[in-house]
Amino acid sequence: MRPGPLNLITDVEGLRVGNAGDARLKSGVTVLTAEAPFACGVHVMGGAPGTRETDLLAPDRLVQAVDALVLSGGSAFGLGAAEGVMAGLRAAGRGFAVGAARVPIVPAAILFDLLNGGDKGWEDSPYPALGRRALESAGTRFDLGTAGAGTGAMTARWKGGLGSASAVMEDGATVGALVAVNALGSVTAPSGQFWAAPWEMGAEFGGLGLGGPFDPGDEPVPQKRQGEATTIAIVATDAGLDKAGLTRMAVGAHDGLARAILPSHTPFDGDLVFALSTGRRPADPFRLGHAAACVLARAVARAVFEATPAPGDLQPCWRDQR
């Protein structure tokens, strides 16, 4: 495998990603959409998820394609970002046709960033407007680190952020990942090296490698309370998979979180992975799950690697400590 041209999830042809954030709020929204509706599955492994429309993604449900996916800060308030995305898509004539009406299908997942030092004293929720702005900014290039849904993210040790990565497989299929890292666990070993180092391509998050050995005592003790964490992600491919196949791909992709964040999938995290397909080429489901896990692990490390400081931060940036 090799990285795609942008090393972003948008290396999967047809996908676009947009960010919107508020520095004073220390929160934001990331939206993924595409030129046409796409098949999507989901799998949740964390104990404290916050979601919208995920039941619709089960293989036996009626709707077979969605118009956009939303990753948002704001805890439960952030689910309102999907309202702004729906409004923008409806204005563009997108949505599931029900008679003369069209209903955009926009599943969403949120992370908890309400105690990160930002000003949360709003009267009207800012998230619908942030969702609309993120949709309207969607393109093939987008910022990583302190951007979008990763604006106010934190981890056990470092400031979190938004990450992305891609890989082109030997058969020509492309796999990409997009992740907002706000984990209870740590993405680095005590040395500061990224746990995801064995899967790094080039020097995309520093090229430091990974020493060892490490023992269970190296894993951090919880520093957040229940509901204050969550890593939410999207993996994507141009290989053709139906909702059942995508659900299995999402399950496999969770291995990437476990490789890059220690510990992961705790009772206090709401870890979730969406998986989508644009269906433009034949699929090899066996290899796609492994590729998605590798790419997601890299995206997690890039999220923290690319984070930048902002006034009022409660945690240091990884780059500032090197």
Automatic annotation (TrEMBL):
Pfam families: Peptidase_S58
A GO molecular-function descriptor: aminopeptidase activity
Matching InterPro entries: ArgJ-like_dom_sf (IPR016117), Peptidase_S58_DmpA (IPR005321)
PANTHER family attached to this UniProt entry: BLR5678 PROTEIN, D-AMINOPEPTIDASE
Family: Belongs to the peptidase S58 family.
Name under which the protein is recorded: Peptidase T4
UniProt source species: Paracoccus salipaludis
Taxonomy of the source species: Bacteria, Pseudomonadati, Pseudomonadota, Alphaproteobacteria, Rhodobacterales
